[in-house]
Structures are given as structure tokens and as C-alpha cells.
Amino acid sequence: MPLLKLENITKRFGGLVAVDDVSLEIRPGEIIAIVGPNGAGKTTLFNIINGVFPPDSGKIHFEGKDITNVPTFRRAPLGIGRTFQIPRPFGSASVRENIAIGGMFGAQGHRMSVDECMEKAGRYIDLVGLKEHADKPAGGLTPTEKKLVEIARALAMKPKLLLMDEAMAGMNPKDIDKMVEFIKEIRKTENIAIVSMVEHIMRAVAGLAERVMVMHQGAKLVDEPTREALSDPRVIEVYLGRPPEGNVADR
Amino acid sequence: MITEQLIGNLIQGLILGGIYGMATMGLSLIFGVLRVVNVGHGQFIMVGAFMALWMFNSLGVVPVIAIPFAFLLGMLLGFIFYYSCIKRLLKGPELASLLATFSVGIILEETIKLIFGSEFRGYNWALGKITIPFTVLPYTKLVALSGSIIVAVLLYLWFNRTRAGTALRSVVEDSEGARVCGINVDWQYALSFSLGIGLTVASGVMLTMFIPVGINPYMGGQYTLKAFVIAVLGGLSSPYGAFFGGLVFGLVENGSYTLLALIPHVEPFALTRFLSFVMLLVILLIRPTGLFRTR
Amino acid sequence: MKNTLSKYLPLVPVLAGYLLLFLVGENLEGTWQLIALLAFYCALGQAFNLFMGMTGYVDFGYVAFLGIGTYGMAIAISRFSDKGWGLGLLVVGMLMAIGMATLLSLAVGAVALRLRGAYFAIATIGVNEGLRYLIEGARLWNGSEGILFSGHLKKAFGRDFAIALSTYWADVMLFLIAAFAAFMTLFYMRSKVGYALTALREDEDAAKVMGINVTKYKIIAFITSASLAGMIGAVAWALKLTYVYPPDVFEIHYTVEAIIIVLLGGAGTLLGPIVGGLIYGLSKYYLAIILPGFQLLIFAPIIIFIIVLFPEGTVGVLKKKVQGTFWEKIIV
User: Which of A37, A41, B136, B152 is deepest in the core (most CB within 10 A)?
Assistant: First the structure.
């Protein structure tokens, strides 16, 4: 059974079709990338999966259950987590508190007390390497550190599916590689599927994703294993992003 | 008998509604452009009312002449408040600008009280009246209504036919895009805010032409509530919607007053004010974007 | 056990402060009236902070809850004074005050709390007006004449105790309510409720994504804050003044005062409302002597000043200074 199944999702804003009849399946533990130029509809798709707004038509199934009209806050305990492109940690709360909040209302939150969540937060603080900042207010951190708080907070929710929105935007190649390794690591240790949304960082896509879905003007263009997708003439034609270094076939 | 009275009151309500509508245009303008809710709205109306009062009683100036002066005063106040505090609060939490405009309202109340005292005042501009079927209309009310309509039309023309107005509309649509086109967005914000306040203060003058009594520093609060109902009715960001919302409100207010007066053991005036509040809640629940589809 | 102790440590300065105030009033001749005023403002601030401070939403109609609490107590005393319940009458009155305030908050909350920021403020701005005109218009509970129950109070408790109630015991109860409000604030802060509120205050959409049912927590804060207001009204207005009069108890400037107190002291902090209450109460008391009639004119610009320059308030600034030190655990 697929973890997440999107069936014919369409979303319009006024006259603009933001998402056009998109269908997608994600299996447990997969890492896939959704790729497409600005305005292709990726963020809208994420918002629909997250429950920020419902689709105009189509259905969403998570672990077999229809969640199309389930409100946002109920999707987290089901196991859907998300990080934002511009990190949005709760600024006045400390790093530890931020992460603990993720745990409190996430998948197993109702079983855990506040103290337990604080304790468990320690693990994620170590995972992202923010131990020295653990009790500082999240608002005072650097953008990269805030990103790590976002991720740790999302992980503390114990998601089965993690939507990562442009997690590597603005990073230099070395950091991108580190992030790629990190994501692969958490996929294994946390046993989650990861959907990574990227715009043009081919380095990340090639090294990380098993499958790529390319979107163009709201519709799905291709949905293939990475290798094929990146050398697919349709993709190259419509999407003049920066090609990865070297030949994709060599990776 | 009752139907006649009702129709008569409805006509009065329509006229008053036109003035209410014009009074609310400023509120909608400010919200539409700056996304700021001017909680001190009613107090600016009160300032206009006092301006009319003072100019008539002390200077012998007819309210119609007071209108442009009130408008200018309002614009001046608007610029002052924009640059001194509103500007800084645009990026912060909503709470901040709400409290700021609320406090401005209080400052206005207390300052006017200091200058004029808190008794109820009025003035009498006797122009005579005209008798139409169902009711009697003093000419002052007609002047007020015409004034409101003229202002609404002028605003419409300004927005759609002048360069300045078009620049403003572009800022509402897409502030980044407007900036790229070389439009000074900050100045547009200042202009809209001041324009909104100017309209509001001017409307205070017109209101007194309809109700030339009961002018006191604390009269503003009730108009804030009414303005919110009207603004929400007309679509919070649309000045034209506000005008039509005002008409609807005026009708409902006077109509319900007449009908409630028929019920024994009830105080119709108080209950009508309660009704405005209920209207507000109902609309906020059902159709917060307003009943009218104007942009 | 030790954990609980350290969790509730921040209550110590709060309770100590109230105790100190009480002792000053008890022992220093002629200060009781001032102390009672300060207790009122601290309690008001503490109750209002529970909603505005912790959620970031402004309830402009807050005074309606004070008013309806006053009515609750007034109705109980005027209707049941001849039942011979003794102190039970006060308990009934208090329960009615809390009950009516809770019901009102549910009614208002059901509509208003679904709305965001500015829309919420608009919805609440008419609540106190609406309730006042409903009472006057429908002639509820004597309509615009209000209820005068000093006679009933004397009949139920005898003249001497009734006077003691109005001039002393009511104020003592205010202290207790203030302490209780402080306790509730800390209780929420240390539980999931508090964290949910912090999250939704900072970023409501991100909070929803994190799985927080923001409406539920807003309601919890709203009802708690409203019930406390009802209790305050029952005690500080009904018992002290022995009458309730619609234009008085739905007067918007009490909401203004509550806002000033919370902002001055530090919204969302535990100590803030006390600090704010003391500063505001003292300033108002002495201003009334020096410059009567100018209070609001002086305080309204101060609100703007605080919002623009010191949004975190006195205790907020203090908290930043003591970060990383021992005091961090106490100044909350």
C-alpha cells in the first residue's frame, strides 16, 4: 500500500490553474524529489498535502485513509511533517522547546508528557548538532541553524512522511552534500519517506532522490527514476536549469 | 399608518446610510491598502463633527464650507500618525497596529474633551425643509447626502482616471511589482492612510448635517462599530462596497427601529444598537468578504 | 516532587508580592484604599494576560465579562438574600458570576475565535456594547436602571458584616483571585496548553502544521480569562459597590486599562501583570490627585510608545537581561 496517494489533484486560484490534475504515489521510506521552475505549482501541491487548503478536485489518501478534507492540524498526528523554505521556528521559545513542541503534538504526542517531550528533544538536538544552542531562543540563530531547528522539530513529530520545502536553498555545494548525507541518514534511522522540493539544485536531486517528479505549469511532466528523468528530453526542453556536473549516467 | 411611518423612516435611513457609507470609505481604503484596521475610526468622525460645530458656532461658517477644511485637517492628522507610528508597525504583529489606532482614538477623545469639555453640544443650520410623500426632509440632510455622493464619485474618478490613483491601485495589487516600476510604495501608503483619515474627518461634518445634536467627545465609539458592520458588509477592502454597505445598514437600522418600537416592554433605540452588533457577527460568520463583489 | 517545586518556583515572587501588598495595607494607616485599587489592577492584568498575553489576540470587548460577572453576583444577592444561606449566598453568587461569564465567553468565542487577528478584534469591539444594549433594550434584569442590592446584602448578613464585606473582605478576595489567576497562568505555561499558545502566538500557520488545534487552545485561554474576569467583577464591583448599572460596567475604558497594564508589564509573562498593575495603579492614583482627568491622555500615547519601542514590556526586557543566570528560573 502506498504511504501517500494523490489522485487527480487540481487547484485553481481565480482563473489560474496552480495544480493541474496531478497524481502521485509515494511508498514508505522512499526519497523523491519534486522539481520544477518557479510557479510550477510545487508549493501549492505541498500546501494541499499538508492541508493548508483543500484541492478543488481529486483525493488524497494517506496509509489508505482518505484525508482530502482533514484539517491541517490533524495531519501531523497522522504522520505528515513539513519544513518551510524560509524557516519558521517559534522565535521566543528555545531550541529545545521548539523541538519539544514538535513532539508534543505529533504522532505520539498525546501519550507523552511535557517533561518527556523535553527529554526526547535532546536526541534531535544532538542529531542536528545544536547542543550548544539548546536553550537559547530560536529567534536569535543564524538562518542555517534555524533550518536545522526546523528539521529537528519536524523529526520530533515522528512523521512517516516528511515534506521538505527547498531545504537546500542558499547553501554552498559542500553544505548541500552534507545535507544530502544527513537526509539519507534520517531516512534510515527514522524510517520515513521524504519528499524534497527543489527548484534548481541538481546536485541534491541527483545524489538524493530515487525518483523525480517534474512539474511544469501545474501539471506533472514526468515521474521517473532519477537517471531517466534528468536525461529525459522533455525535461531538458522545458526546464533549462543548471545541468549537474559531469554526465548523469556516470553517477 | 405603520407602513407609512416605516417607509418614511426607510427613506431617512437611506439618506443616513449614504452618509454612513461615505464615512466608512476611509476605513475600507486604509484596510485595503495597508491592511491596518483603524480602531479609532469613530473618533476621527467625532473630530470632524467638532470642526463643523466650532466653525459654525464660532466663525459662522456654513458646514458645507467646513467640509474641505475638515478633509485637509484629516489628511494632516493622517500624515502625522502615519509617519510617527503606523509606518513602523506595518511589518509587526497585527496586535500592534490595532492597539496603536485604538490609542490614537483615545488621545483624540481626551484632547477634544480638554478643549471643548464633555457636554453635549449642537448647532442649528436652518435651511428649511421639503415635504415629500411619507416624510419631511430638511434641506440639510439632502445637502449631506449630495455631499456624500459627490465625494464617492470624486474618489472613484481619482482612483480610476488619474495617474496618482492608478499608482495607488497598483500598490494594492502587487506592492513589489509597483516598487519595481519606480513607484514609491511608502509614499503611497502614507497617501492612502491620510486620504482615508481625511475622508473620515470630512464625513464627520456631513454627519452633523444630518444629526446636528449630541456632539460630544465620546460620540465616536458607536460609529466605529457601525462602520465595522458596514465595512464588512461591503467587503472590508472596497471603498465602493462600503458606500453601498452603508445604504443597506441605514435601511436596516431605521427599519428595525420602527419595527422594534412596536413591541411593548422593549427599548427600541438600545435594541437597535444591539442589532447592529448581531449583524456584524452574522456577516463575519457567513461572508467575511462582504456581500458585494466589488474589488 | 523536586521537579514540581522548581517548576512552580516563579510563583514565589508573585505570592510574596501580593502578601507584601496585603501586609502594607493592613498595617499602614489609610493605605487600604490604594492597596485595594492595586489589587484590582493586578488581578485584572493577570486575568487579561491569560488571553491577550498568551495568544496575542486583543479582545476589545473584555469588560463585558467583568460586567456579566457583576450581574451574576448582583442577581444572586438580590434574589436569594432571604433564603438564609449565610456565606453560601456569596458562593452561589460567585458560581453564577463564573457560570454567566463562561457562557458568554462560549457564545462570543464560538463566533470570534474562528476569525484571525484583525477580524477577531472587530468582532469583539462590539461585545460590551452589544451586551449593554441587549440588557437595556430587552429590559433584562431591570434594564437601564440596573440593580441596587445594598439592602438585600444587609438583610442577608446584617448591617455590620455587609459593610465589612464591601470595604474589606471583597478586597481580600481580590487578592485571592489575583493569586489564583497567577497560578492558572503558570499552570498553563508549564503544560501543553502554554506551549500550544506560544506556538500559535508566534506563527499560527506553522503551529497548525505542527499538529496544534489552534482553535481549541484559543478557546481554553479565552474561557479561563473570561471566567476570571467574571470573578473579579463579582467581587470588585458587585460586592464593593452593592449596585450594578449597565453604562458603568460595560465601560470600554476598563479594557483600555487592562491593555495598558499587560503591555507595560510584559505581555505573556507571569510577573508582567503585577508590575504593570502596580505601575499603572500607582500612577493613576497619584495622577488623579495632581492632574485629574488627564490619566487617559497620558497613558494612551504611552501604549503607542510601548508598542513601537518596548513591545515586550518591563518584565520582557528583564527576562532578556537575566537569561543564562539563576534568575531566569524565577523571573518568568
Answer: A41
Residue A105 and residue C196: Cβ atoms within 8 Å? yes
Number of separate domains in chain A: 2
Residue type, A85: Q
Report how far residue C274's alpha carbon sits from residue C332's, in angstroms, rounded to the nearest whole number: 12
Q: Does B243 fall in a domain?
A: yes
Identify whether the C-beta of residue C222 lies closer than 8 Å to the C-beta of residue C51.
yes
In A138-186, DSSP assigns E strands to: 161-165
Average the pLDDT over A156-169 and give the result: 87
pLDDT over 50 at B292, yes or no: no
Strand partners for A162: A81, A194
C192 contacts in A (CB within 8 Å)? 104-105, 114
Side chain identity at residue C213, one-letter code: N
Domain match, A108 and A229 both: no
Name the residue among B230, B224, B226, B257 with its Cα closest to residue B243.
Answer: B230
Rounded to two decimals, what is the model's pTM?
Answer: 0.89
Would you state the pLDDT for residue B8?
86
How close B161 comes to chain C (CA, Å)? 31
The beta strands (E) that lie in C132-244 are given as 147-148, 243-244
Model pLDDT for residues B87-116, shown as the tens digit of each residue: 888 887 777 888 899 999 999 999 999 999
The residues that bridge with B27 in the sheet, in sequence order, are none
Chains A and B share 3 or more Cβ pairs within 8 Å: no
Nearest to A51 by CA among A81, A31, A19: A81
3-state SS assignment for residue A66: strand
CATH of the domain at B54: 1.10.3470
DSSP assignment letter at B82:
I
Contact partners of A by the rule of 3+ C-beta pairs under 8 A? C
For residue A184, what are the CA distances in angstroms to A177, A208, B119? 11, 7, 75
Which residues constitute the domain of residue A108?
89-158
- Which segment of A218-227, C137-146, C223-232, C273-282 scores lowest on mean pLDDT? A218-227
Mean pLDDT of A73-97: 90
Q: Is A84 a domain residue?
A: no
- Alpha-helical runs (H) found in B162-219: 163-173, 175-180, 185-210
Map out the domains of chain C with their CATH numbers. 2-329 (1.10.3470)
Q: For chain A, what is the radius of gyration of the CA atoms?
A: 18
* CA distance linking residue B207 with residue A216, whole number of Å: 56
- The ipTM assigned to this model is 0.86
What CA–CA distance (Å, rounded) separates B274 from B268? 10
Locus of grid cell 493577570: C46
Tens of pLDDT, residues B231-241: 888 877 777 78
Task: Tell me the H-state helices in B35-93.
Answer: 41-59, 63-81, 87-89
- Are residue A47 and residue A126 in the same domain, yes or no? no
The helix (H) or strand (E) run that includes residue B236 is none
Q: In which domain, by residue range, is B27 found?
A: 2-119+138-286
B276 interaction partners in chain C (CB closer than 8 Å): 126
pLDDT at B98: 87
Residue C221 pLDDT > 90: yes
Residue in this structure with the C-alpha cell 523554505, named with its chain if needed: A85
CB neighbourhood size of C249 (10 A): 27
Q: Cell 476589545, residue? A: C60
Longest dimension (CA), chain B: 64
Collect all residues of chain C within an 8 Å Cβ-Cβ radius of residue B260. 137
Assess if residue A117 is contained within a domain. yes
Q: How far apart are CA B1 and CA B9, in angstroms?
A: 12
Distance, in Å, from the CA atom of B55 to the CA atom of B67, rounded to the nearest integer, reads 10
Q: In this complex, does chain C touch chain B, defined as having at least 3 beta-carbon pairs under 8 Å apart? A: yes
Q: In one letter, which amino acid is C246?
A: P
Q: Which residues of C touch A92 (CB under 8 A)?
A: 198, 202
Q: What is the pLDDT of residues B197-244, one digit of tens each?
A: 999 999 999 999 888 888 999 999 889 989 988 988 887 777 778 888
